[in-house]
Amino acid sequence: MKGDLLKKLSMALAMTLATGPVLAQAPADATTEGLQKVLWQKLETRIESIDRGLDAVLGVAIVDLTSGQTLYRNADLVFPTASSIKLSILAELYRQSERGGAGNANLADPYTVDAKDLVPDSNIMEGLTPGTSRVTNRDLATFMLVVSDNAATNVPIHR
Asked: How far apart, in whole angstroms, are the C-alpha atoms of residue 123 and residue 145?
């Protein structure tokens, strides 16, 4: 069931991401605003369809950053986020690394393991020697995603 949910949500996300190219291929007589409205309605319909087919509770929060239009489903419910935050941390790390310059994280930035940063379920970081072991932000991202190391997740947040 979990894999099926992820597959369906991935399809919904892919529909959202595909909006730009579809608009770019629109006929000259179609208005961008009209196409966006149709695509937004299709997205709403698709999410409703996915939600009806689930034996679970679906929560969705989508904001169109160009128009400010929002789509919420079960927005007042509290959901455990588990490790989903790790994708946002990774995206921000790469965004800052690409931007470069002072104040931005870089994938090659070194980090010396500090005992105060270690938390439970840090399978890799707990095995390193505090004050001695050095890793990079890229290493932390790898630990964060490959083995879901929680200390490797927290360090980039705090940095």
From this structure: 12
**For residue 65, what are its two tokens?**
């950053």
Cβ atoms of 72 and 48 closer than 8 Å? no
Tell me the residue ranges of DSSP E strands in 37-153.
60-63, 70-73, 110-112, 134-136
Pick from 99, 100, 60, 53: which is nearest to 79 by CA?
A: 60
pLDDT in tens, 4-46: 554 554 554 544 444 444 444 555 556 888 888 999 999 999 9
CA distance 124 to 140: 10
- What would the pLDDT profile of 60-89 be if each residue is shown by its tens digit? 999 988 889 999 999 999 988 788 889 999
Its pTM stands at: 0.57
